[in-house]
Specification:
With 134 residues, this protein is mainly alpha-helical. Helix content is 69%, strand content 0%. The chain is built from six helices and no strands.
Length: 134
């Protein structure tokens, strides 16, 4: 359900999953759980715990990827948002990366923090430097 021009991709994805699960006869508590897990990828709750924290960390794992893969990902993001004027993209992307760097920890779970935190911070700082250079 991802659409780069939409601000509500996660919400639409959660609603779609809830509808499909309801049509399949899933119990309400399961539907609610799946919806919450999909919404965890909004990263609106930096204090998420349990499965929601794990899903959010999986979603952010790419940030701690080895440099060549991270650079490929950044290039993919740039192509995905090619419809935006360059300055608008750079400003928006920089704001997002700065917000991630401002967190005490990027990853909520110990597993992901231990494995990816340092690399993610290095990748994000490097990406910000490139964005600011234009």
């Amino acid at each position: 359900m991802y659409e780069p021009r939409a601000a509500d991709s996660e919400e639409r994805s959660a609603a779609w999953a809830a509808r499909v699960l309801a049509e399949a006869g899933a119990a309400r508590d399961r539907i609610d759980r799946v919806s919450r897990l999909v919404l965890a990828t909004t990263h609106a709750d930096p204090a998420a715990s349990g499965d929601a924290a794990l899903v959010a960390d999986v979603d952010l794992a790419i940030l701690g990827a080895p440099r060549p893969r991270f650079l490929e990902y950044e290039s993919q993001v740039g192509r995905e948002y090619a419809w935006l004027p360059g300055e608008a993209f750079r400003a928006g992307r920089a704001a997002l990366l700065e917000a991630l760097l401002a967190r005490p920890r990027i990853y909520a779970t110990e597993l992901f923090a231990e494995r990816f935190e340092a690399a993610a911070r290095a990748n994000l700082r490097d990406a910000l430097t490139r964005l600011r250079a234009g």
